[in-house]
Amino acid sequence: MQRNLKLFIISILLPVGVFAQTGGRTVFNFLSNSSSARIAALGGVTPSIADNDLSIAFFNPSLISPELNNHLALNYTDFYQTIQYGDVAYSHTYDKFGSFVAGMQFVNYGKFTSTDEAGNDIGSFGAGEYALSLGWGRRLDSLFSIGADLKFIYSSLEIYHSYGIAADISATYFPDSRSSLSFVVRNVGRQLTPYQESTVQPVPFELQLAYSSLLRHLPLRYSIVLHDLQRWDLRYNDPSTATSDPVTGETVKQDKLTNLLDEGMRHLVIGLEFMPVKNFTVRVGYNHQRRKEMALDSRTSTVGFSWGFGLRVKKININYARSTWHLNGSPNYISVTANLSDLF
């Protein structure tokens, strides 16, 4: 029986890694995916917004606080083809032990056709990955907060299975009541059990720096996130896109300053939130690396841009977003968060 594992793994890693061209370097890349509609609308990388949104605190544990006590967050993403992923989180504060968030991330890759050596259909199989997590956060004083979480990971790709463990560590500085600056160390861990006795592969370790601020005289919040700070050059060099001199035929090298700016911009994600009324928010975001890697030269369109809105209806927060990854279409994100104490 022939199982085309190579093509199967490629079909998984390319669409699910947060940044497509760097996604194949590690296992468990779904850990980097947030299905929060709010995060997706702001560019797809977790911002530093301390307004008691459990969907953000789930990925930045230093924002876990007593204000999130008894909050529930449900996030779902209808990704490309049959791929679906999401997460669920619940927060509770104990007087003696502090504030905690328990949750689960999942990704379902759908059904695949299994064939023999001759290409005959002999059935189907599924694939999915899961992570159970427990996070803790504490406000040290009016200026600083810290937090950490621990994730237990399970991956099932047809008959191949793998286990892993990872942790996030973060700290947030509050210069004033409207601003916050977070430093996040994501996915410190390892693959415990490799697929079919293969070599142990690294998990998607990442360093992030995020800043957000609400303007004083305008209902507008901006967010700036620098991601993948552990590695400077995030570019993918595709030989097929190289330009040649029409006379000599030699490859034309790009200007060093242009390369430097491009390398720096690929770490940058920008998001804006506009709140014209109390219970309604409009959001837009821009992810430069996604645009550079996924846009086509013939038609760049809105690849790399995202948008969404938030609406509060009867003590329930509903968020929706669309994020353009490719000309093939834009995934839909939907999130529901609520304070259960207000509901019941």
Rg is 21 Å
Q: What share of the residues lie within helices?
A: 10-25%
Instruction: Provide the spatial order of strands within the biggest beta sheet.
Output: 1-2-3-4-5-6-7-8-9-10-11-12-13-14
What is the overall number of helices? 6
Order of helices and strands: HHHEEEEEEEEEHEEHEEEH
The H-level CATH homologous superfamily, spelled out, is monomeric porin ompg
**Inertia-based shape:** globular
CATH class: Mainly Beta
Domain count: 1
Tell me, rounded to a whole number, the average pLDDT: 88
- End-to-end C-alpha gap: 55 Å
Any guess at the CATH architecture?
Answer: Beta Barrel
Uncertain segments are 1-21
Multimeric state: single chain
CATH topology, anyone?
Porin
Q: Can you count the beta strands?
A: 14
Largest sheet report: 14 strands, antiparallel, barrel
In terms of structural class, how would the helical and strand content be classed?
mainly beta
Strand content: over 45%
Can you offer a commentary on this structure?
The structure is a single chain. By secondary structure, this protein is mainly beta. The protein has one domain (5-117, 125-343): Porin (Beta Barrel). It is 12% helix and 47% strand. Strands 1-2-3-4-5-6-7-8-9-10-11-12-13-14 form a 14-stranded antiparallel beta barrel. β3 (98-115) and β4 form a beta hairpin. The longest helix is centred in the first third of the chain and has 12 residues, at 5-16. The termini are far apart. The model is unreliable at 1-21 (pLDDT under 50).
